[in-house]
Amino acid sequence: MANPKLIETFPNPAPQRDYVIEHTHHEFTSVCPITGHPDFAEITVSYVAEKNCVELKSLKLYFHAFRNEGIFFEAVTNKICDDLVAALAPRQLKVVSNWKGRGGMTSVVTAEMTPRAR
Amino acid sequence: MANPKLIETFPNPAPQRDYVIEHTHHEFTSVCPITGHPDFAEITVSYVAEKNCVELKSLKLYFHAFRNEGIFFEAVTNKICDDLVAALAPRQLKVVSNWKGRGGMTSVVTAEMTPRAR
Amino acid sequence: MANPKLIETFPNPAPQRDYVIEHTHHEFTSVCPITGHPDFAEITVSYVAEKNCVELKSLKLYFHAFRNEGIFFEAVTNKICDDLVAALAPRQLKVVSNWKGRGGMTSVVTAEMTPRAR
Amino acid sequence: MANPKLIETFPNPAPQRDYVIEHTHHEFTSVCPITGHPDFAEITVSYVAEKNCVELKSLKLYFHAFRNEGIFFEAVTNKICDDLVAALAPRQLKVVSNWKGRGGMTSVVTAEMTPRAR
Amino acid sequence: MANPKLIETFPNPAPQRDYVIEHTHHEFTSVCPITGHPDFAEITVSYVAEKNCVELKSLKLYFHAFRNEGIFFEAVTNKICDDLVAALAPRQLKVVSNWKGRGGMTSVVTAEMTPRAR
Amino acid sequence: MANPKLIETFPNPAPQRDYVIEHTHHEFTSVCPITGHPDFAEITVSYVAEKNCVELKSLKLYFHAFRNEGIFFEAVTNKICDDLVAALAPRQLKVVSNWKGRGGMTSVVTAEMTPRAR
Amino acid sequence: MANPKLIETFPNPAPQRDYVIEHTHHEFTSVCPITGHPDFAEITVSYVAEKNCVELKSLKLYFHAFRNEGIFFEAVTNKICDDLVAALAPRQLKVVSNWKGRGGMTSVVTAEMTPRAR
Amino acid sequence: MANPKLIETFPNPAPQRDYVIEHTHHEFTSVCPITGHPDFAEITVSYVAEKNCVELKSLKLYFHAFRNEGIFFEAVTNKICDDLVAALAPRQLKVVSNWKGRGGMTSVVTAEMTPRAR
Amino acid sequence: MANPKLIETFPNPAPQRDYVIEHTHHEFTSVCPITGHPDFAEITVSYVAEKNCVELKSLKLYFHAFRNEGIFFEAVTNKICDDLVAALAPRQLKVVSNWKGRGGMTSVVTAEMTPRAR
Amino acid sequence: MANPKLIETFPNPAPQRDYVIEHTHHEFTSVCPITGHPDFAEITVSYVAEKNCVELKSLKLYFHAFRNEGIFFEAVTNKICDDLVAALAPRQLKVVSNWKGRGGMTSVVTAEMTPRAR
To answer: Is F53 a residue of the active site?
Structure first.
């Protein structure tokens, strides 16, 4: 399973400000746990950093690690959300996965971290 | 008439979180109950799951079952909404049907389940 | 002048629910009352039905009846709004007319029925 | 029937050169001779002028004159081709009519004048 | 199997000219002969008429007759080509079928009648 | 300077209703007051009429009058807003000017009239 | 009238090769000689240089000089073709002018220099 | 390495006619042989069948078999061409691979079988 | 590092009104501080002016000054925000940087000035 | 000046076949030799390899080397053509540079190697 330890961070250059960082990976692919057929998605992560920002290349490698994993759309979206919240401890974070068509169906799953008390 | 028993479910992998799942079927077709001519639509279901998620292939087969049914745009949208609410008991659910042109007219029908008291 | 009696209705199949029905006519044409030149528009009607829904073919014929009428953009949009409110007694209704370019100008007129006290 | 005498001309400003003039009317409308329903098309005329060019406003009025004519796609395209060849005596002339969808069908009809011996 | 006798014709209004008529049906659907799943395509017929043109509404009904037929992409394209050549005896005729995605694959099949000796 | 007296009006056909009228001029051009180079913009005026509506052709001629004026983006947007408020005394009015690229920069300026006390 | 002397040149950096240079001016505007209303076009010049290339900024200023000229679509296209052939003595040259809509009509005029004997 | 034996065929339903079959796989992915990073492409195969057509699902599985292969753009395109020519013995066959951007570069490789003597 | 002193201003022509000015630079480029590879972005600045507006050409030159700077996406967005707030003392200001793809990832960073007490 | 020695090659995997390789760099930037302002282009190289193919990463670095060079559109296109012909000795090669707008003008320059005698 894709290891959250692949996610590296660097210090937020503007922690005094709530600003939004959004990264979209256009080439996410994993495998259907039932049929073994490949699935393809566009994954967007948007967040407000606290102390740390996610390093872009490490995020890409973390996404690549799903390439041969069998996992459902709903589960992978929640796992990415949980792994990034654990790695970044952000002020806010949202993950949107947008899945390409399979048999005339497309899907979008959107998960957001539970807001922290401030 | 398309049988709601075709709809299968699997356990929600993240019931602790309100997150949105959206499936769009791009190839819905039914039949006009008056003229017998085929109608074509794109149907989007978006919902917040409680205990169960809809299984994607069974949803497709449920939609396929309308292929030779004579039914109005307004009725089919409300039926899909009712059938999915019955099958999933979701926290929220919305159905949007977007109908292709017929004589220079296109139509969109949007039905949402009555919010549950929480 | 286009006769509102052309508008036919059928019983709302889901009166227990506030859901939105939207019809767009892509081929509306009337005539400029000053120059006599043809005008072209896309007309969208969206409404929440009470007891009755508008029958789609009759709506198209009602729109066709404007073909040789000389009438301003602002007046035709308000007339369609008034005629449909009279015919349907809906919970809500909005008309948007989107007019093609004439001399480098395009126009959009949006009229909504006065909300009813409930 | 739309009168070819509506077509006015002006002298070709560069008769020494074979160059191509193309006018597209985006708002052509006529009527189906069987059902009486309106038809809509985009008409493109492209030609190489000999002595005369077609005056743009008169071409528009000639097209407007089809507004309430009942005529088939194939016939109207050939009539426009014949009328313009008669009015302009051009070196070459082609008419393309591109008809909007009716019941899920769109059509394109393309007619070209018989090349003149030179 | 879709009956070629559904195809009706009317006399070519300009037999003295080789001009091209093209009809595109955007809502073709048939059924996969192996899986029974629905297939969707856009079918374009373009031809040069000899004595007869295809009547548009009959062409639509002929296409509708494939709705519940199990037939391969390659076979349906060649059958439409053969049926229309038999019905119209045209100077030229080409059929292009453009099939929507199924499992990340789209297909286009193009068949043309054998040119007649003239 | 473009004269606001060019703006003509006609009586609002539905003063009992707050409805929105929006006109977009796609071919606005003025001149940079520093370099003398032409500037090009799309100008959208949207308003809720009180007693009077702006007459469309007069609005076009008012816009044409800027053709050879040297004026900044910010100033022209505010002048149009002021001139139309003076001419129409509307319930609400907004002007958006959307300027084409110059040296890799595009600009949008949005000015709204101060809401009236009602 | 726009002065061809505005057109400046620089030496062709690769006269040993027939290669194609194409410049498109997206903001051409002149005036209708009959109505005085502004016309807008996109002008594309493509050519194979002999000894000289056209300097880009001077080409822009030459185009700007048409801003307040009353001139027909057909005449302006041929004049630009003639002026550039005179200024550049190119191996080949073509001018395409693509005019924005006026009353639902758009136009394209294409003029090419007479090929030189080589 | 992806095994050409995965490719299955069925008899050409219209061997008497030269017609074109084109399949596009939108979700091809392989691996860069140098960096190990994933590559993504759209692969189009178009051919004229002799005795056999390629079975669509087997073609998809053959493409899936490249998922974890390290192979260059140029090599994979030629291998697909060779494997399909070997499996189908077609009259003509062309393969186009269209690779998504990597560091601001996109690529297209097009290989065609050597025409057979007929 | 890009010098904020490059930013020039001119007096706000309508200080009595809160209106929005938005400039988008489509050709921003800087350098990745780790790899030295070029990065490309579209930068949008939108603000409500107090006493001064930013002069457009000086803004472009300020952006050009980043051409050979090594700087992260998050840092450059916050620096532009800070520099423009210092130069303009605006009522509101927001900066959005939209970064082109690198290895299948695109990014958007959005920073807004801390609202002033009024 | 960008050094052609940056261009690296690898052996053509299919020298027995004339097939086309096309690489497009979407992020080319150089500097105007007169004004010093940056220019941006999309550069497409398409060629038929003889013994060697261009290595993709080295091609990117070769393009990056123009970043701070002052050079005209016509000259840079011919230089890339000449450098690649020298490095690859291909059977055919074409370079197309497509330059972004500057003052309302866009440009495309297309240079092709002189065909070799075979």
So the answer is: no
